[in-house]
Amino acid sequence: MDGLWDINLPLTEVMQSLGWLELPMRVITWLGSELFFLLFVALVYWCVNSRLGIQIALILLLSTSLNSVLKLTFASPRPIWFMTPVEGSVAAASFGLPSAHAQNAVAVWGLIAQRQRYLWIKILALLLMVLIGLSRLYLNVHFFIDILTGWMVGGVVLLLFDRYSQPVAQWFQRYSFKQQTAIAFLVSLLLLLPSLLVVQIRAIWQVPLPWMETLQQASPAASPPPFSLEVPVSVAGTWFGFVTGIQWLSNRQPLELKGKRQPRLRYLIGISVTVVIWAGLAALFPDGQTPIAYGLRYLRYALVGGWIAVGTPGRP
Q1: 116 neighbors 122 (Cβ within 8 angstroms)
Q2: For residue 191, what pLDDT band results from cuts at 50, 70 and 90?
Q3: Per the CB 3.0–4.6 Å rule, which of 51, 59, 233, 245 could disulfide with 306?
Q4: pLDDT grade, residue 18 (50/70/90)?
């Protein structure tokens, strides 16, 4: 496998030789970050189109869950574990293959391109899919094989979501709210289960010594990430909170906004509360890989997902 990653290094070095691209690439890569999607999903759901916002949230959570399983399964290195980081490199706290930024860009922006009839939106979505992936290569976070695989997996997620989301939604609507809540909780556990199994299977795996040596030369305090469940636990909690919140709200009132000034005001208020829950509880709750820490992380993200769902509903 080392030979496969070695082949990717020259392309990484060529991309990084374009030093003037650092600032725009950092901005572009932020468009694939957790914070951006938190702000973006809330904006679309509350202020633009609630149905599209729900679809974006669900496909993003499904894509992220699958990406976490694949990362833990392959336990693939980052470029920084093979080469000394250059100026402009950014830190990453997970394994490399496939790139979550590239995968989620195809899933989310591909969905938006499918749902919108305007040509300029489709072109913008395509550009973002490509540029977000390339930004990860430029910033020395991924090999090109990571990005290419991310694009491919994102495309598969998009195709499956487009094919099965509507039938599954119709099946889900047949149940009572209590039953829907139970189903949402079970699905959240199912999203977590594959990653948990991989971590258990990989328990005896050791980080290769050459990776450790290269990384510690670049940053003595750094070390490759353990087999953490933080991302799948976050996804599971968000899924439960968001889906339950959507169903609770739909049983009480139509998803709509009235007036032209309400969306802007509601967004500012709503996103402020979202950030307080997301960042505030992160500061209060313990971090780590203990059952208590994971349980509180699940609760934290369930509250975030639930608030986005019911705090400031968007229009259909």
Answers
A1: yes
A2: very high
A3: 245
A4: low
